[in-house]
Amino acid sequence: MDPVGVAAAPDAGPGPAWQSKCPWGAPNTTSISCSLADVMSEQLAKELQLEEENAAFPEVVAVAEGPFISGENIDTSSDLMLAQMLQMEFDREYDAQLRREEKKINGDSKVSISFENYRKVHPYDSDSSEDGVDWQDTRHDPYRADKPTTTPRKGFIGKGKDITTKHDEVVCGRKNTARMENFAPEFQVGDGIGMDLKLSNQVFNALKQHAYSEERRSARLHEKKEHSTAEKAVDPKTRLLLYKMVNAGMLETITGCISTGKESVVFHAYGGNATEDKVIPPECAIKVFKTTLNEFKNRDKYIKDDYRFKDRFSKLNPRKIIRMWAEKEMHNLTRMHNAGIPCPQVVMLKKHVLVMSFIGQDQVPAPKLKDVTLSSEDMKKAYYQILNMMQQLYKECNLVHADLSEYNMLWHDGKVWLIDVSQSVEPTHPHGLEFLFRDCRNVSQFFQKGGVAEALNERELFNAVSGLNITADNEVDFQAEIEALEKMNEDHVQNHGKKLSMFSSDGDPPIYDE
Ligand code: ADP
Ligand code: MN
């Protein structure tokens, strides 16, 4: 029985699109025209096959393509959600049962069979520790060969004529056959495992090589597929995380997607019930950091050198590094909020999913500064506000935004709100001052172009924010001085093992105001 099929049965009215793919419905006769190159494409073949499979098992489609992800299908019925939760639960039980049977059949036998291929929850996906921020979780790697039972140091076992050495052909052969089980599940090793098959080392090694290259190839294919869907949607595990938030009453409904960026997807949601220790805002933004890793590679420099995260960085796998971005955004938002800077307020963090208050109203996000047309009065007001916020950020939060521009400032309630601070760093970060200078350049240019005559140029702005007094009157020299300062700080770290507490020269930065 399939719980989704039952629980998600349509009550009345037109159902969601996937229901029309029901095998009992009218056959789909639309023909798709395509080129010869398409016909020859392996990728296309895979996709077509997938489509066919999906058509045959519509309920699987429902699980794989959650309803609210598209952004169009706003009706997230709790029935469906419940059904999907049940399906996950069902899959898990099914897998547990498989595991029990596997154990029963194998017993103590040296040669074992595996039902891995029949499992519903892929070993990479199964994760029972959904609660809490589990930085420490170690995932069992299903592809890593178990430690083979070794022959003792002396190189042989047994006595007299029963002696067998580690080079014994029969023992080795059997061991090699058993080790085939550790190849990736999709690698077909035939029936050898069930027979008393002996593989020579040479044959085994050749097979192993092939299995690994196959594994890598399949991973690449998989990644491509992930990539195309990840543009709009999130992966099933993230979806489950989101369902759980709704199920726990934290969120009322997730209405749709407000932004799909390279590194994150942002959803809008209505807040759920307040708990004893938490007030949940009426409208929330959910920022899901993408777990497709490629996009994050070029961001290494922000976090790798941030000493707050330095010790942890080297030990982490990429999945955890992505969670670290989410964690960083949370900490930075909290600092900003404490300093009274208008910004989203953190509601909660779960793995790579950050829930915060929504800047906007009735599902409509506040426009970015680049998208609003402000009166010259508001423009000037916005400028001074940003100048103040940059100073506060630097002085009170000890932060440099590091991606500040009209793209990451929203106009709401007659003022500017700062967002997107996962990459923000402390000023003493090895490139902190360069990031600040870039921020200043963006802000100066935007407001100078926007007709604010009072707007400082980027160098003046930099000095005003940092309190430093760099006198160079041209960009190149200015930049050189910045880099010299950064280097000085790095040398200090080398020599004294810690950073200068702050860059400062002659006291507090001047406060500019209207
Ligand atoms: P990135 O630019 O890295 O994709 P952002 O944090 O800038 O991520 O979010 C992307 C977009 O989502 C923003 O430009 C903004 O339009 C919207 N957004 C993000 N957070 C919020 C929020 N708290 N309230 C309203 N809209 C938001
Ligand atoms: Mn952004």
TrEMBL record:
It is found in: Cytoplasm. Residues 223-467 form the RIO kinase domain. It holds the Pfam family RIO1. The keyword Glycoprotein does not apply. Its EC number is 2.7.11.1. One of its GO terms (biological process) is defense response to virus. The gene is Riok3. Belongs to the protein kinase superfamily. RIO-type Ser/Thr kinase family. One of its GO terms (cellular component) is cytoplasm. The lineage of its organism: Eukaryota, Metazoa, Chordata, Craniata, Vertebrata. This is Serine/threonine-protein kinase RIO3. Residues 125-160 are annotated as: Disordered.
